[in-house]
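Problem: given the chain below (154 residues), write out its structure.
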Amino acid sequence: MLERFKSLFKDMPAIIKGSGSELFDADDPRLAAAALLIHIMTVDGEKHTKERQRLEQILIQSYGIKGSEVVRFITKAENANREMIDFSVFTDVLNQHFNEDEKRDFIRLMWEMVYADGDLHENEDCIMWRITDLMGIKEPELSIAQKAAKSNDI
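Solution.
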């Protein structure tokens, strides 16, 4: 199932390059997903090397983004995260592009990001509930994804 999720992003249109920078459409699910991953990574107010490394791994494995493109992609996603008014901006994009299995796979990736630093902060927990609600993921699936991510050797 996770392999199918990864292939979804690899099958997306290639990153458009223009004048040395990447352009991402506002409804690009890669950007929406990365911005939400960055948000959950930073919501506890602490920066951890493990979280940044896990983010880069996810982007490389799920999106096929390599080398210096990862840094540019993260910068663009960080900007999108800063400009975000409401999670629904990103979850609407994901809901348009993801089927139910892909949504659950993405929620598991978000939980992996939460646990990348070894702790569950109450802000992270609240954000996860909000995002999963906006994506139509109900409590049993949320708990299953959380337990799977928590027990995963990241």
